[in-house]
Every structure is written in structure tokens, then in C-alpha cells.
């Protein structure tokens, strides 16, 4: 089946970083995601758009293992993700940012970043984890990128909403995932914060694939290589922003409003 | 703030924490032995065995957010393991000549058991017993923890299940009188490897051993708290999903915290048996388990030292009040628990941190540095 879809992939050298095929999930008979297929290339920035309830977040949940697929397959660098545990998926190189900022309020910014540092993830590893120079340097480097270098010792709960979003993006950066999934990274941000976030994303997407859910069309136009439009759990349209924007079906259900 | 700030370097203990430890050691090893007679000191020793449980609860409940209402199970298992060894030693053939089967514990003889059951045999050996004291409760916690946390059972459901386990174990011990000593427990314990534990000098020595073990457990807990694992426990309490999607197997970390709490409780249980001289199902069940949670809550569940002081204070109050007003004490305990939940949720440690510690700091260095702004009281890593 693979060979039919991916010519040349039989040599064990997949062309796509992520291949989602015939993905379906049904909650008590309601198909939140229905026969969705799409393919993400290495270094591609793909944006998923669509009206509320289209199944965008569910697709990300399925990829990172938070929700289990009813049928279909998700292949990441040629290996099947639908059978892996959440932590194994992360360790394979898939990072996920949640819609509402999901950070550890009771820990400092430094400690938040440190937990995401990809070392010492077993119980024993965490017990014997040493906060050495490599860890510190990396945390300071990332903190600088996410505009939080002056707040490292602050408790995360005292950050502003925008800063919390950046912190979570920073926590993903430290993981250095090959596939980064962001769920509405600029939602609820001020204009200035939004601009800084766009800058930040431009900087961090180098050398990795990114899957973004976003409603802000200007932002989408700014970053997307390709756009996938979901509607009622199905792929409605796909292609460059230019193409999608002029697709009458898309205008009808989403952009027209 | 640049790198050498209090939150980015990570010493084993801050100077303040060393001071707290010194105060605790002075209290346990110097002040109490000087101030109290042998009987009262033994009583404090008994309270301190509960402090092991409260210490475990501080890690498991305070840091990791797993409320176990069945810590008496692990306290009891540790205590029973020790009691079985002591009972076998007390039941030598000479001591039990009048029984129809000499050489087995008296309660077995009364219950028409004629041979030592297989699970009693390892307790003929002291090294095996010492291993079993820690290993049996920890393994049991591992099995329970693995069954629950791998299935993502948590919160209230977990608390209820631990409570059910406490009830089941009590019923089992009471019901199997011939094998466990039943409702009376295992009594009439005399010697530990030939050393009489009933004498005053033995009791004093056991008190100090108990204190030493407690300090060792505090240091172990401190090591866990200060490691990245400790911060992961706090992170899981806040945002379990974020930890899971940062590549950690959340269940393993919860199992670890639960097992650690069980191991501490087990050491406490064994020391209880040695100091008090018996073990009975009344220390296994729901009521003692909940009382132990109250100790941790009153002391401040986010504080290792708080858990110990909470245990000491509540038990001191219990002894004092139940000597004068026996019927009122349980109401008092209930009221205290409600007061903690409503008025000072971080317990005594929270009150200390909020009101006393800042005063001390201010007195120590008159112009207070800005640190307080970035290190608010009640920070979880305290």
C-alpha cells in the first residue's frame, strides 16, 4: 500500500516526513475526523485552517497520540505512530504545543525549560540529572530567543499570557523536534506580541517541519508554504495560500464569513 | 537576573534548609531526650514513627498530587514484617513448651495451626526480615501503583481505592487469626537477635536509631525533591499532559513517588513495632491512614519538615487532650483538619513561611534584597 502511494519509498527512504492516510476517528459514531489524508515534506510549514469544529485540534491530538485513531495510519519518517505511546512519539521527534498555554505555574521559567531538555527522561535519569553547562547554555540560548532571558528565575504563573505562549514554544524548541505542531500560537496575543511571535516562528522553523493551526489569515499568509482546509472532519481543499484563497468551496464555508 | 540566581543553581540544600535540619536534629537528639523521662521519650519515639508516613505523604501527596488514604497499609506491612521476626524469636521451643505444638507463635497454637505457615519461614532470619520490611510494602505499592497509574486512574478514584485496600487488608488480618494473630495483632515481643527490647536502655537506644533513620529519610526525600525528578512531580501536579507530551512516562514517575512513600511508611512501621512492642490491625486500617494524612496536612503538605512537626504536634495534642477529655479529642482532630483546609491550606509550614520566616530574614539582613519578589513564599521547591 505504501509503495503505491509513495513511489520510490520501497527502499525504506520515505519522501515525506509525515504521511497521514485515511485517518478516521469516531466518538460514539460521530466522526470528528473522517478519512483525512495529507503529506508533509521535510522543512515544510503547513497550516491547517478551517471553521470551529472542523477537527483541526483532533488531527494534532491523533498525531501526538493523545487521541487514538479508529482507523487509518500516521507514518512519521516511515514508522507508524498510531501504535506508539505518547512519550515514544515525543522521543521520535514530534513536539506539540497546546492551544491554551500549557506550562508549569509553580516552577520558574528556567525549570520549565529544563524539564523539556531532552535528557534524563526515565525515572533514574531524572533522579541523577545534572544541571551542567550544556543544559544551562541551551536554556539561556532558548530563553533569549523567546524574549524571556530576563525572567528565568520568575515563577511561570506571573508571566503575561503572551509570555506564557512563548515559554511553551521555548519548551518545544529545547526538545528540538523534527516535526513541530503548534495549536493557535498567536491566539489571544496583542498586536505587538503577535508580531514578535511571527518573528520567532520564522526563526525556529529552520531545519524542521511545522504543522500550525491558526485562524489569523494574515499570519497564515505570512508563514505557510501550503495550507490544508478542514471542514466537518474532511479535507476540503489543499494547496498554496493563493490557490486555497480562491477556491470557491473554501470561500463558501470559511473565508467568506 | 543572570545565571547564579537562586532558582538556576541547584544546591542540595539551601542554608535555610540546613538550619531547619540542624534545629530538627537538636530537637530530636538533644532537647527531647534531656527534657523528657523515659516513658515520654518512648511516646515521642512512637510519634516519630508516624512522621515517616507523613514525610512520604509530603512527597506523594504534596509534591506529586497523589492523595493516598491507605498509607496505614504500608506502615502496617512494615510493622508486621518486623513483628513476625520478633514473634518467632519469642516463640522458641523452650518458651513455648506448654503448647501442643511448641516452637510456633502462641496464637497459631490457639487456632489449631500445627506447623509454621510457609510465608513465616523467611522471618526466622534477621537480614531477610530487614529486607522484607522495606521490600514487601514497596513491592505491594508498585503493584497497586502500576495497576492504577498505567490505566490513568488518579485523584479521588485513587484515594478511594487505597482506602478500600486498607479496609481489605484489615479484614484479612483480622479474619486469618491463625496466621496473623487476628484483631489482637502480634503481641508479647521480647528480643531482637537476642537483645531485649523491653528494657529502658533498649528503648532509649531505639529512640535514637529511630531519629537517625528519620533524618536519613528526610535527606533522601530532600535528594528527590532537589533532583529534576522532584520538579517533574510538581510539573505533573500542575499539567500532567504537558509532562507526558514532553516525552516522559508519567505513570512511572507516579509509581516511583508512591513506592517511595510506601518505603518510608514501612520503615516507620518497623520502628513502631520495635519501640511499642506489638503490631495490630488497628494501625493498618482506614482511620489511622486518614489520621496520617491529617498530620501531613496540618504540618503543611508541601514541606518535609512541616510534615514531621505536624505529626509531633498533633500527637502531642492527642495525648494531652485524650488524657483529660478522651471523648472530645476526635472532634478536636476533625475541627483542626477543617481549619487547615479552610484557613491555612499550606499548614504550619505555610504559616511559618508567610509570617515567621520573612521576619527572621528581615532581622538577619536589614535592607532586604529583591530576592523575595522572584521567590515568593510557598514556592513548591521549598
Automatic annotation (TrEMBL), chain A:
It holds the Pfam family ABC_tran. GO terms for molecular function: ATP binding; ATP hydrolysis activity. The keyword Transport applies. Residues 18-257 form the ABC transporter domain. CDD domains: ABC_Mj1267_LivG_branched (cd03219). PANTHER family: CONSERVED COMPONENT OF ABC TRANSPORTER FOR NATURAL AMINO ACIDS-RELATED, HIGH-AFFINITY BRANCHED-CHAIN AMINO ACID TRANSPORT ATP-BINDING PROTEIN. This is Urea ABC transporter ATP-binding protein. GO terms for cellular component: plasma membrane. It comes from Methylobacterium tarhaniae. It comes from the Bacteria. Keywords: ATP-binding, Nucleotide-binding, Transport.
From TrEMBL, chain B:
Its main location: membrane. InterPro entries: ABC_transp_permease, ABC_transptr_urea_perm_UrtC, LivM-like. It comes from the Bacteria. GO terms for cellular component: plasma membrane. The keyword Transferase does not apply. It is found in: Cell membrane. GO terms for molecular function: branched-chain amino acid transmembrane transporter activity. This is Urea ABC transporter permease. The lineage of its organism: Bacteria, Pseudomonadati, Pseudomonadota, Alphaproteobacteria, Hyphomicrobiales.
Amino acid at each position: 500500500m505504501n509503495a503505491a502511494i509513495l513511489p520510490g519509498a520501497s527502499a525504506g527512504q520515505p519522501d515525506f516526513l509525515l504521511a497521514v492516510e485515511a485517518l478516521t476517528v469516531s466518538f460514539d459514531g460521530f466522526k470528528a475526523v473522517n478519512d483525512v489524508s495529507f503529506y508533509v515534506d521535510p522543512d515544510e510549514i503547513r497550516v491547517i485552517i478551517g471553521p470551529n469544529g472542523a477537527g483541526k485540534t483532533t488531527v494534532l491530538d491523533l498525531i501526538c497520540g493523545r487521541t487514538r485513531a479508529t482507523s487509518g495510519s500516521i507514518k512519521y519518517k516511515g514508522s507508524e505512530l498510531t501504535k506508539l505511546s505518547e512519550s515514544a512519539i515525543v522521543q521520535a521527534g514530534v513536539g506539540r504545543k497546546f492551544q491554551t498555554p500549557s506550562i508549569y505555574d509553580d516552577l520558574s521559567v528556567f525549570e520549565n525549560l529544563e524539564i523539556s531538555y531532552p535528557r534524563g527522561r526515565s525515572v533514574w535519569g531524572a533522579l541523577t540529572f545534572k544541571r551542567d553547562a550544556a543544559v544551562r547554555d541551551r536554556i539561556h540560548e532558548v530563553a533569549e530567543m523567546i524574549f524571556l532571558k530576563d525572567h528565568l528565575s520568575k515563577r511561570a504563573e506571573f508571566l503575561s499570557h503572551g509570555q506564557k505562549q512563548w515559554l511553551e514554544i521555548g519548551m518545544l524548541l529545547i526538545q528540538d523536534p523534527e516535526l513541530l505542531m503548534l495549536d493557535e500560537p498567536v491566539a489571544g496575543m496583542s498586536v505587538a506580541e503577535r508580531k514578535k511571535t511571527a518573528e520567532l516562528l520564522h526563526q525556529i522553523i529552520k531545519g524542521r517541519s511545522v504543522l500550525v493551526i491558526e485562524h489569523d489569515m494574515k499570519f497564515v499568509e505570512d508563514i505557510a508554504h501550503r495550507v490544508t482546509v478542514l471542514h466537518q472532519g474532511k479535507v476540503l481543499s489543499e494547496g498554496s495560500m493563493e490557490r486555497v484563497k480562491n477556491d470557491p468551496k473554501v470561500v463558501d464555508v470559511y473565508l467568506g464569513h | 537576573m543572570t545565571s547564579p540566581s537562586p532558582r538556576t543553581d541547584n544546591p542540595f540544600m539551601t542554608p535555610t534548609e540546613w538550619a531547619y535540619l540542624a534545629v530538627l536534629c537538636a530537637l530530636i537528639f538533644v532537647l527531647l531526650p534531656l527534657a523528657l523521662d523515659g516513658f515520654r521519650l518512648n511516646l515521642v519515639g512512637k510519634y516519630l514513627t508516624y512522621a515517616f508516613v507523613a514525610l512520604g505523604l509530603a512527597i506523594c501527596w504534596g509534591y506529586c498530587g497523589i492523595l493516598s488514604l491507605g498509607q496505614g497499609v504500608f506502615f502496617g506491612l512494615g510493622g508486621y514484617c518486623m513483628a513476625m521476626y520478633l514473634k518467632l524469636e519469642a516463640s522458641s521451643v523452650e518458651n513455648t513448651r506448654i503448647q501442643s505444638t511448641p516452637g510456633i507463635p502462641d496464637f497459631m497454637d490457639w487456632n489449631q495451626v500445627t506447623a509454621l505457615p510457609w510465608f513465616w519461614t523467611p522471618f526466622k532470619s534477621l537480614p531477610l526480615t530487614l529486607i522484607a520490611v522495606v521490600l514487601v510494602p514497596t513491592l505491594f505499592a508498585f503493584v497497586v501503583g502500576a495497576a492504577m497509574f498505567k490505566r490513568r486512574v488518579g485523584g479521588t478514584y485513587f484515594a478511594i481505592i487505597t482506602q478500600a485496600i486498607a479496609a481489605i487488608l484489615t479484614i484479612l488480618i483480622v479474619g486469618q487469626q491463625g496466621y496473623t494473630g487476628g484483631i489482637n495483632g502480634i503481641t508479647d515481643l521480647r528480643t531482637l537477635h537476642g537483645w531485649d527490647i523491653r528494657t529502658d536502655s533498649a528503648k532509649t537506644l531505639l529512640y535514637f536509631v529511630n531519629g537517625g533513620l528519620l533524618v536519613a529519610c528526610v535527606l533522601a526525600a530532600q535528594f528527590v525533591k532537589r533532583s529534576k525528578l522532584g520538579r517533574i512531580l510538581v510539573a505533573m501536579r500542575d499539567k500532567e499532559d504537558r509532562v507526558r507530551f514532553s516525552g516522559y512516562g508519567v505513570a512511572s514517575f507516579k509509581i516511583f513517588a508512591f513506592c517511595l512513600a510506601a518505603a518510608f511508611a514501612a520503615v516507620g512501621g518497623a520502628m513502631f513495632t520495635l519501640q511499642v512492642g506489638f503490631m495490630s490491625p488497628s494501625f493498618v486500617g482506614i482511620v489511622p491512614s486518614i489520621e496520617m494524612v491529617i498530620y501531613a496536612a496540618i504540618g503543611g503538605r508541601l514541606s518535609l519538615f512541616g510534615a514531621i512537626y505536624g505529626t509531633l504536634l498533633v500527637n502531642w495534642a492527642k495525648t494531652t487532650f485524650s488524657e483529660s477529655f478522651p471523648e472530645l479529642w476526635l472532634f478536636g482532630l476533625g475541627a483542626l483538619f477543617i481549619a487547615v483546609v479552610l484557613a491555612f491550606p499550606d499548614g504550619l509550614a505555610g504559616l511559618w513561611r508567610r509570617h515567621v520566616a520573612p521576619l527572621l530574614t528581615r532581622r538577619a539582613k536589614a535592607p532586604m534584597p529583591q530576592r523575595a519578589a522572584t521567590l515568593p513564599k510557598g514556592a513548591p521547591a521549598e
